[in-house]
Each structure stands twice: as C-alpha cells, then as structure tokens.
Write a structure and sequence with these properties.
This protein is of the alpha+beta class. The chain has one domain (about 5-135). It contains 3 helices and 8 strands, in the order ββββββββααα. It has helices at about 110, 115-130, 130-135; strands at about 5-10, 15, 25-35, 35-45, 50-60, 70-80, 85-90, 105. Strands 1, 2, 3, 4, 5, 6, 7 and 8 form an 8-stranded mixed sheet that branches. Strand 2 (about 15) and strand 3 form a beta hairpin. The protein is globular and about 40 Å long. The relative contact order is 0.20.
C-alpha cells in the first residue's frame, strides 16, 4: 500500500437511535493509495454510545466494476485511554449493517485472516485521524 489520502464524502441527515433515542450520524468518504482509488468507507455513531462503526470496502473501483468485484470489512473504533482501538466485526455485529455498494461484508473470522487486514487497519487509522467528523465522534 502506498501513500494514503482521504477525501471526505457526504453525510446523511442525523436520525434518532431506535434503542436510546440519541442523535445518530452517518458519513462516508473515499480512500486513495498513491492517488489511485483504493477504498470507500462509511462511518456511523450515536452520541453517548462511545464507539464508531465503520465499513471499509476494497476491491475493483474501476469504471464498469460493481459490488460483486468488491468486499468490505466491518470495524468498531473506540477510544481507550489515549489510543484508538479497532475490533473487526461481522455482519451480525456491524451497527451499519451491510452497504451493498461497497461489496459483501466479510464474516469476522474471514476478515481477520484476510491477506489485506493490515491494510484495512492502516486505512481505519487514517479515517479516524483525517476525517474530522469521525475524529470528533471519538472522545
């Protein structure tokens, strides 16, 4: 993986968490490696919950490529002491569910053993550092 950069995308209108009633947010953005399209991400959090759910989609982003040529990783990011820690989650534990556009969400064990898992962690670190919306959600 080359030099990573983040391009902020859009954000959905805030909505209320069906469990606690607090305000929830969803944002998305784009990841480049050496200037080339590398990944798309979605991030979501609810005020007061303490973590940020993320989906990171990798695969073919070329013209004409579709979701069948991509796959995604689910993560939870949480501030712990003075660090951000990540936990890989599967479809059953992802607070964002599955976003078909970015590819099939891998089961947890498959994601953990995937050859690109270290790149996913690297991208996740850039997201929480370089996307100010996500950074502000992690105390």
């Amino acid at each position: 993986m080359g030099e990573v950069s983040i391009e902020l995308g859009g954000q959905a209108a805030p909505h209320l968490c069906p469990h606690c009633g607090n305000e929830s947010h969803n944002v998305w953005g784009f990841v480049y490696s050496d200037g080339d399209a590398y990944a798309v991400y979605y991030a979501g959090w609810t005020l007061g919950h303490g973590d940020v759910g993320m989906l990171i989609g990798l695969g073919d982003w070329g013209e004409g490529a579709g979701p069948d040529s991509r796959y995604s990783f689910g993560l939870l990011a949480r501030s712990q002491e003075s660090n951000i820690v990540f936990m890989v989650v599967g479809p059953d534990a992802s607070p964002l569910g599955e976003v078909k556009f970015i590819g099939h969400l891998l089961p947890r064990q498959e994601a953990l053993s995937h050859p690109e898992i270290q790149d996913v962690y690297h991208v996740a670190e850039h997201i929480v550092r370089d996307d100010s919306r996500v950074a502000a959600a992690l105390p």
